[in-house]
Amino acid sequence: MSLMYMGWCMAGWDVCIIDGGWLCARKRKNLDYYSCVLCQTALEETLPHLFFTCPFSLQCWQLLGIAWDFTLSTSEMIIRASQLFGSTIFREISILECSCIWTHRNSIIFYGRSLSLVRWRQSFKDEFALILHRAKPSLKQELETWFCNTF
Ligand SMILES: [Zn+2]
């Protein structure tokens, strides 16, 4: 899943909740298991749960300094989190985080890897290093500063 697609997923979160497209797409495949593999809650994996409310994902967001207020609407929640984050690189960090959650989930489902905050953290750092190579000069300094202060 590309980072651009992840961004699209985040932007389309309301649509996914309303029409249940995420769940319907998975159920048509008749999988045996629909629970979230990132937590022990046995909750059905939905887009909002996987990327935002899952306890594992919440830990990841917290480590990155991003907090979600689930009492707000989706758009208000994203705007509020961006304001609290206090940096112009919020979009880059949040999209990369969704990508890392997604790949961590897939590594468990498809490759039998274990759930690991340490492994997620290393994956985020590795992907972040790649982002730095392609970052616009106007964002690169801010990305590097954020990284040094966070990791
Ligand atoms: Zn979960």
List keywords for this structure.
70% helix; binds zinc ion; 151 residues; mainly alpha
Topology (SSEs and partners):
Elements: H1 3-11, H2 13-19, H3 21-27, H4 47-53, H5 55-64, H6 74-85, H7 90-111, H8 117-134, H9 137-150
Bound molecules: zinc ion.
Characterization of this structure:
This is Reverse transcriptase zinc-binding domain-containing protein. With 151 residues, the protein is an all-alpha fold. The chain has one domain (18-150). It contains nine helices and no strands. It binds zinc ion. Zinc ion (ZN) binds at residues 36, 38-39, 41, 43, 49, 54, 56.
Our estimate of the beta-strand percent is under 5%
Task: Compute the number of structural domains.
Answer: 1
Return the average pLDDT rounded to an integer: 83
The largest pleated sheet is described as: none
List the bound ligands: zinc ion
Low-confidence stretches: 1-6, 11-25
Would you tell me the structural class of the helices and strands? mainly alpha
Q: In whole angstroms, how far apart are the ends?
A: 25 Å
Basic shape: globular
Q: Tell me the number of strands.
A: 0
Percentage of residues assigned to helices:
over 70%
Query: What is the element string, with H for helices and E for strands?
Result: HHHHHHHHH
Query: If helices are DSSP runs of H or I spanning 4 or more residues, what is the number of helices?
Result: 9
What is the gyration radius calculated from CA atoms? 16 Å
Q: In summary, what is this structure?
A:
With 151 residues, the chain is an all-alpha fold. It contains nine helices and no strands.
